[in-house]
Inverse folding.
């Protein structure tokens, strides 16, 4: 009997774990695994100043034969300098034998090249890690980036080009300030339970002793300044290893396991300091990390080491921002580290530091197509506090606005929604049913939950059977509001309530905090929509746009992955996701936006409530000179009116071993290659590719 009870217990446990596994795997099965092909997991530094030339390191996998660098936007270009494949033990042994032959003079070589080759082999052997912490980023590409003086500042995308296709994109920024980038981290070794100390940053000659070698450091500073890696105000404090910088500037770094990076600077009393970190925005999701991104922490201390400011996130975003007014003249030290002291090569950051412009809130968060718009800004170090975006030729969507500070510096971007429905403004006081603001539908009301616990009420007249949609757009426009929506009748009875509504098109928001209601009104009479914050928070930054209208059936599209490679006159497949809105259930067919460009698209149509389609892209081109942009469109009708929507390129990213997200990319790129001579299925190097570097 005891054996039977044990067997039954094991069987129950197995059923339990099978159920848990099925539950956990459901999100994985809903989206395809990352497409096979070239992949990059980090780029360091992830940006540079206008008018500079510098080297950056990209880590990834399946990068064999890498021959080009693709940068979106104008005024910036790159080229491959070196490719270092992650070696296995047998390959490393072969390298050691080759190095020994070169040193003994038994290996034939060209005159003058022995010393360079020997130096490179020694470096490869010295940097070798048999078990890297992440094999997905252990293959390294060294690229040279050239940014023109007139290159528009702001976010770009960088990809690598290989004979087998394009890599995924990663963010890359063109900045206006002097920059400093420390030397790239060595490949991080795998952490072993009980031996974690062995994987901490190595303080050998490569770091600590080099910092104390004044002659070597002076030479390195001159090289960095010549190549744009360091601004004219950056230098190393050789006594304690801290980096001394001059404000304003941008510092780039990589956090190693257990490490803290520190920057010393002088500041005068009254300076309104901004220290804005980009980290999660550079590598949005990590598949094998918990939390699923680098979580930086900023600590500001005075010269005596006393903490004067701290931040570990900015509102709902993991990337911290310090806003601090300097109390007295003197030196200050800014430290950055991971919240739980993790680290490796893809823990990359950029910190913009100084009296730079920073917008903390904007109102309103959007406007109507064709109507004049005025946006009031709040923040620090702003020369512009009011913007008037051009609205005449706009199409519905979201645009980015920036304000100017002193010396022509641009602020952080602020999202601004453009919609076709009439716009309205909240009129306070409207926080009680008796003072509810009367509105006529359809309308988009712009308001603010101005104080903690505040709520805004809007009253309208409805008819029996009328269908109403109430939707808040706030978190998707960078407002910290965690919206709570409620609909009540004339007697105050609650008819509908909503807190969070999932939006699959919001690839970076993991908390879908915008609320949505779709209700059929039961009778003629007055109805009231209540807007508040679910956390009972509020303030001038807690702005929102509230849509009150009949359903507006529509759809949006995401195409995954954000690139495709195919043989000349061949074809390839991608996955398209349809995000149906307000009950849209029409069929969707697909087409290329410009078939004359040599590409056609076929697939679908999606019918009824289908949301996923496999779409085939076919080309008549024998090859392309390099990656070319391609737009896939979805076409449908609603009430006899044609709807055409461009598919937004996206990457399927995993977060923390489980959750998957469609992260938007700036553009969808296609690469057409010609087969290598005599090998019908083997691609040759794209025509704009560079010569393959020596191993």
């Amino acid at each position: 009997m005891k054996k039977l009870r044990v067997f039954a217990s094991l069987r129950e446990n197995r059923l339990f774990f099978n159920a848990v596994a099925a539950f956990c795997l459901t999100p994985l099965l809903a989206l395809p695994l990352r497409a096979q092909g070239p992949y990059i997991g980090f780029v360091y530094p992830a940006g540079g100043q206008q008018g500079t030339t510098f080297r950056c390191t990209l880590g990834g996998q399946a990068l064999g034969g890498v021959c080009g660098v693709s940068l979106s936007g104008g005024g910036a270009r790159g080229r491959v300098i070196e490719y270092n494949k992650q070696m296995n033990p047998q390959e490393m042994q072969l390298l050691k034998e080759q190095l020994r032959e070169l040193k003994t003079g038994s290996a034939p070589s060209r005159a003058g090249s022995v010393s360079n080759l020997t130096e490179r082999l020694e470096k490869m052997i010295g940097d070798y890690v048999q078990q890297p912490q992440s094999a997905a980023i252990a293959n390294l590409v060294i690229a040279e980036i050239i940014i023109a003086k007139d290159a528009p500042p702001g976010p770009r995308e960088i990809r690598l080009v290989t004979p087998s296709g394009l890599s995924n994109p990663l963010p890359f920024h063109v900045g206006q300030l002097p920059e400093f980038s420390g030397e790239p981290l060595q490949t991080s070794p795998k952490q072993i339970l009980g031996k974690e100390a062995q994987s901490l940053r190595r303080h050998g000659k490569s770091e600590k002793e080099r910092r104390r070698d004044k002659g070597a450091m002076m030479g390195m500073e001159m090289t960095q300044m010549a190549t744009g890696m360091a601004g004219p105000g950056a230098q190393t404090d050789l006594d304690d290893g801290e980096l001394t910088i001059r404000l304003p500037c941008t510092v780039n770094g990589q956090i190693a396991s257990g490490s803290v990076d520190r920057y010393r600077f002088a500041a005068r009393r009254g300076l309104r300091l901004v220290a804005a970190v980009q980290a999660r925005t550079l590598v949005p999701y990590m598949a094998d990390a918990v939390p699923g991104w680098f979580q930086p922490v900023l600590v500001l201390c005075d010269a005596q080491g006393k903490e004067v400011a701290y931040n570990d996130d900015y509102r709902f975003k993991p990337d911290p921002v310090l806003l601090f007014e300097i109390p007295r003249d003197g030196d200050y030290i800014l430290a950055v580290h991971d919240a739980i002291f993790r680290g490796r090569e893809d823990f990359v950051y950029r910190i913009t530091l100084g009296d730079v412009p920073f917008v903390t809130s904007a109102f309103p968060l959007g406007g109507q197509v064709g109507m004049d718009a005025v946006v009031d800004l709040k923040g620090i170090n702003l020369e512009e506090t009011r913007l008037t975006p051009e609205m005449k030729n706009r199409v519905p969507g979201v645009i980015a606005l920036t304000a100017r500070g002193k010396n022509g510096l641009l602020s952080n971007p602020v999202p601004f929604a453009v919609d076709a429905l009439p716009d309205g403004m909240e009129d306070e006081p409207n926080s009680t049913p008796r003072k509810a603001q009367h509105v006529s539908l359809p309308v988009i009301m712009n308001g603010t939950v101005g104080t903690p616990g505040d709520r805004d009420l809007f009253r309208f007249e409805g008819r029996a059977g009328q269908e109403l949609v109430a939707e808040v757009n706030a978190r998707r426009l960078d407002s910290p509001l965690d919206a709570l929506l409620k609909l009540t009748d004339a007697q105050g009875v609650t008819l509908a309530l909503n807190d969070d509504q999932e939006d699959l098109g919001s690839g970076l928001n993991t908390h879908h905090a915008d609320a949505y209601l779709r209700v059929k009104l039961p009778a003629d009479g007055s109805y009231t929509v209540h807007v508040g914050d679910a956390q009972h928070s509020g303030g001038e930054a807690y702005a929102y746009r509230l849509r009150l209208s009949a359903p507006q059936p529509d759809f949006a599209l995401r195409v995954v992955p954000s690139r495709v490679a195919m043989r000349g006159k061949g074809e390839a497949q991608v996955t398209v996701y349809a995000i149906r809105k307000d009950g849209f259930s029409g069929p969707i067919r697909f087409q290329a936006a410009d078939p004359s460009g040599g590409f056609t698209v076929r697939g679908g149509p999606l019918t009824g409530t289908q949301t996923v389609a496999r779409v085939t892209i076919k080309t008549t081109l024998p090859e392309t000179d390099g990656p070319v942009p391609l737009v896939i469109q979805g076409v449908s009708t609603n009430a006899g009116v044609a709807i055409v929507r461009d598919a937004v390129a996206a990457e399927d990213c995993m977060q923390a071993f489980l959750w998957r997200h469609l992260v938007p990319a700036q553009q969808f790129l296609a690469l057409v290659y010609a087969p290598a001579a005599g090998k019908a299925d083997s691609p040759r190097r794209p025509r704009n590719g560079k010569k393959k570097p020596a191993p």
Summary: The radius of gyration is 28 Å. The mean pLDDT is 85. The helical segments are 2-30, 89-104, 114-126, 205-212, 214-227.
